[in-house]
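Loading example: each entry is read as two labelled lines plus one structure line.
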Amino acid sequence: MSNTRPIISQEELLESWQGHRRLTRRVIETFPEKELFEFSVGGMRPFSEMVKEFLAIAVPGLTQIVNDNNVEFDETRSEWKNKQDLLNAWDKQTEEINTLWSQISPERFHEEVNLFGQYKFPAIQNIQYFIDNEIHHRGQGFVYLRALGIEPPFFWER
Amino acid sequence: MSNTRPIISQEELLESWQGHRRLTRRVIETFPEKELFEFSVGGMRPFSEMVKEFLAIAVPGLTQIVNDNNVEFDETRSEWKNKQDLLNAWDKQTEEINTLWSQISPERFHEEVNLFGQYKFPAIQNIQYFIDNEIHHRGQGFVYLRALGIEPPFFWER
């Protein structure tokens, strides 16, 4: 980072991400069990698959950033079989993200990390990607809910 | 902002936003003319209406943040009649955003702004909302494209 004119602190970015994660959790809850795993539009993935992707990125990605080891990307976790499994994994990661976050030094955010052995960017850019990717796919989940005739949560409620 | 551990600079946030705006521009371009204004899923708005919302937020919102005056939210601009109108407005705002951005002092980002007379938050949170809202609705545009059998641009290409 150019040290000039910093406008977002480490604490603020975590709070923003966890706010988004609270909204994503509400979207998971809003899906009916069956449709969470089966429904989609336009040949896309069901929302559960997107949630598995978020879970495969967040804690594994932060773990690599903290420990500087190689972490495999694995979104095929077969133990997540129903909505409650996903919510439990989600809540577990909420705590793990807070713990890992406190272990990242400010300098570390601007070091390059070859995330999952394939995304070589400064850590901060990888983390912004984690968040943006979640917002992007959650927006798609909103369309699935609308197509099912179900009102999604309010976007601005975090 | 707590001044401790800042991790994103003013310049980095602008670059991130403009990267997202370049992707949104590609999504606008990818829509067929008619479907941009007429197609939607689940009773939602067509993508053109979302784009008008982005345009009603970005430059008007930044203008209020810079000048500290009251700005009306108006997404009903009737002069945007076709895809080329939207792309022209988009490109004009790209330049205007760069100019306005350079007029925001670092301190200003953490002052409260009652945006459009109704969203009273620190300027930085309003700006993060501008970006997150664009990512969210653009993700919905991706679903519209898939439902039309059209491949969207790559999400990671900025």
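Chain A is about 60% helix and 10% strand.
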